[in-house]
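Reviewers of the previous submission asked for a worked example of the structure-prediction workflow described in the proposal, so we include one complete record here. The input consisted solely of the amino acid sequence. No template or homolog information was supplied to the procedure at any stage.
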Amino acid sequence: MQYQLPTFLTALCSFLFITASAQQQHQHQFTIVSENDSYISVNLDGYYTNGIKLAYQWSLSSPARKKKERSHSFYAGQNIYTSQFSGEFFEERLDRPLTGYLYAGYQNSLYNAKEDLLRWGISAGVIGPPAQGAAVQKSAHKVMHIYKPTFWEYQLNEAWGANADLAWSPGLSKPGTTSKWAFKPLLSATAGTLFTHAGVGGALIYGQFNKNSATAFWGNHKGSSKTDREFFGYLMPMIYLKAYDATVQGGMFNAKPEKIEGRLNPVFFQSKLGIAYAGNRLLLSATAIYENKQSLTQRTPQYYGSIQVGWLW
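From that input alone, the workflow returned the following structure tokens.
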């Protein structure tokens, strides 16, 4: 018995150490993203005029495996699209379809030993009246005591759909090296009954940031000390070749004509200029976004802002 007890205690201590180590390798994160054109200017209120997204993410490190880092995420949100001005007075000035887009999805991110990122996901959503775009915008304007949104009776017809997406970003810097500058190329593709497009671009980053598998830029911040904190700015232009966008063209399988017709812009440009901070628990970021016309019927391109707040544990 005197030999069994030390053996038992050794085994117990080893088990607790392994368990504690495994728990430290897990990380949970909850984020809220709010997007609105009024974040850029109070004079803007149209096109992609508001978005909200909630996401819960957890991750697990596996140093013994080739794919050493994996994170999982569930998310849900709503986007609202209107004509150039949400309170338009004249029907003939409606220059793109009105609709909400309500969605939910799952995303999986893999980082290998070279810090390459491979991300895939699936999502499902709905446009038209069930997406509650009209109700949310009208309620928000009523609470803020501003003008009443108009012509929501002309919104897109109801359509449900699903998508799959894939993204890849190779790690260009050697693991273990540090620099205040980095370039992160990105190739992406989305296919489904709501959206189909492919994109190419990248981000030029300056500041203090972690490696690919531990940086807030990819929504995967890791760290428990001051040296792990991140504070950086970035410029990220992207070009997309679009084949389908249900928020512009309506449901893929809808036979009923839409009240307002949109014409898809097949070559879509987007540019982001942002700043981000990631501490041991708190994540903050603010981004200004420029996009050219989603529908060729739009009079102008658009600008909007994005604010993200996250909490890690």
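The domain at 4-312 is CATH 2.40.128.140 (Lipocalin). We consider this example representative of the routine output the project will generate in years two and three.
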